[in-house]
């Protein structure tokens, strides 16, 4: 293969990968009209809800798989939730969530929001237990120090493993707050919040700058979700998957999941190992 020619004007975009060309952005299964409608709502309100994307059986299987894996009864502060269980680094132990992380509709939306080779930033199961207080409102890509208003540097899914109700901790959202500048919500704006009430198997998808938080659980049952956060390919991920997921496991994952975990290049060479494509380390 002839050596690629780089010039000062192409250095920022040239894809120098030879053997391992990106396969990002090919979600042909999804109707472009559906994607375009969803994106229109997403850009207007900062979130969308797709009801029942996953079956009850899939949610029950996920729950049965993850319940024995929780290592702590509760979080360490009121943000993690003092009556909330969280399962981190889950792909190190189980691939039960992988089909949800790479669902074609979700990748189809992400393909439109980010440059190719966007990354999985964090993957968690969150189990809000009875009598948990509401989580402080926040926005997920707030740790990237770019002034607002700005484009989304992150996006997230919250998949309802249990029915989400107004009483059991459905995620609280401030619609259109993704368009705000650098400020926190006023008391009046908090009154306009809504709750993402949705049946089990549904997906709340929202943009990184949208203000939201876990709701208070006023019931006697817990409320579980699976949440995946994604980020633009040039942003640092929250979880350090290169350290937490052994290579032997990564080798068994799909092309999409490998790419999302950072076995990918943001052109020309972000993510390299020894100046080469990181997928080469999976050959060892
Ligand atoms: O569990 C939820 O509904 C939202 C949780 C959340 O936003 C977070 O932990 O960052």
Structural account:
With 284 residues, the chain is α+β, with helices and mostly antiparallel strands. The protein has a domain at 45-233: Jelly Rolls (Sandwich), CATH 2.60.120.620. Helix content is 20%, strand content 16%. The chain is globular, with a radius of gyration of 19 Å. Bound molecules: 2-oxoglutaric acid. 2-oxoglutaric acid (AKG) binds next to β8. Residues 126, 135, 158, 171, 212-214, 225 line the site of 2-oxoglutaric acid (AKG).
Poorly predicted tracts of residues: none
Per the principal axes of the C-alpha atoms, what is the gross shape?
globular
In this entry the ligands are:
2-oxoglutaric acid
CATH superfamily of one domain, by name, is: q2cbj1_9rhob like domain
Give the second-level CATH assignment, the architecture of one domain.
Sandwich
Taking the alpha carbons of the first and last residues, their distance comes to: 24 Å
So how many helices?
8
Helix-strand pattern, N to C?
HEHEHHEEEHEEEEHHH
* Beta-strand proportion: 15-25%
| Residue share in helix | 10-25%
CATH class of one domain: Mainly Beta
The CATH topology of one domain is what? Jelly Rolls
**Count the strands?**
9
List the helices and strands and how they pair.
Blueprint: H1 32-45, E1 47-50, H2 56-66, E2 84-87, H3 98-101, H4 104-113, E3 119-128, E4 154-160, E5 172-173, H5 187-191, E6 194-195, E7 203-207, E8 212-213, E9 223-231, H6 241-244, H7 247-250, H8 255-260
Antiparallel strand pairs: 1-7, 2-3, 3-9, 4-7, 4-9, 5-6, 5-8
The structure holds 2-oxoglutaric acid.
